[in-house]
Amino acid sequence: MPGQCCWLLAAGCWLLAAGCWLLAAGCWLLAAGCWLLAAAAARWNVDAATLQTRNGRVSGPGGRQAGYGELADAAMDQPVPETVTLKDPRDFRLIGKPTGRLDARAKSSGHQSFGIDMRLPGMLTAVMARPPVFGARLRAVDDRAARAVRGVKGVFRVPLALGAEGVAVVADGYWSARQGREALQLDWGDDKVEKVDSTRQLAQYRELAGQPGSLASSFRKVRCLRQCQDSPDPWPAWR
């Protein structure tokens, strides 16, 4: 179908673009390493060949060390290197080797803390009840059962985008707030909700697929890809 071909072509273009970005990012990462070494060499007045980078730090003769952040400003002033020396595969510490997740043990044992676990003195937690579909309007709220849930401190109607409304249940913890939200009796009006069905949507999709698309944007991206491949500095092609 024309629509399917269009989506496949678009996906192919964006995959090419993603590959270009990854290549460019890799080149700039290599250059960044050279800049950091050059900045450290200039600071310590030593040969950059005597320096090493490891675990976010540059190490030099005599036990000298500096973090990447300490050298960032000076590294920005370094010229773009004409050649970059690649690391010998024998010196790879991570590439091609099994590495364990740093948070695997904490997550599997239940000790990992997430944003929802943050607790501050006097902090309350709010859980929202939102319209079940776009365009639904809140006609009435019965919050008596929600307010009876242990830990619930209040129930509030909250304005949302496009004139919609939601209901926030505030409690002293997430579970109480969620239980309070589940206890709400909400009457949603759907008189302003667009009535659609799959058959009608498919007909609209077929009609849209038969219409000509905007070729200017696609050709611009292709030109950018070509410039990215031909230029030593790919970024200007995408600005």
**Mean pLDDT over the residues:** 80
Major β-sheet strand ordering: 1-2-3
* SSE class: alpha+beta
State the helical fraction: 40-55%
- How many strands, which pairing sense, and closed or not: the largest β-sheet? 3 strands, antiparallel
* Count of discrete alpha- or pi-helical segments spanning 4 or more residues: 8
Give the uncertain stretches in residue-range form: 1-9, 219-229, 234-239
H/E series, N to C?
HEEEHHEEHEEHEHHH
Which geometry do the CA atoms define? elongated
Terminal CA distance reads 34 Å
Radius of gyration: 29 Å
β-sheet strand percentage = 15-25%
Number of domains: 2
Number of strands: 8
Would you write up a description of this structure?
This protein has 239 residues and is α+β, with helices and mostly antiparallel strands. It has two domains: 120 residues, no CATH class; 69 residues, Aldehyde oxidase/xanthine dehydrogenase, a/b hammerhead (Aldehyde Oxidoreductase, domain 3). A hairpin with a 5-residue loop joins strand 6 and strand 7. Helix 1 crosses helix 2. The relative contact order is 0.11.
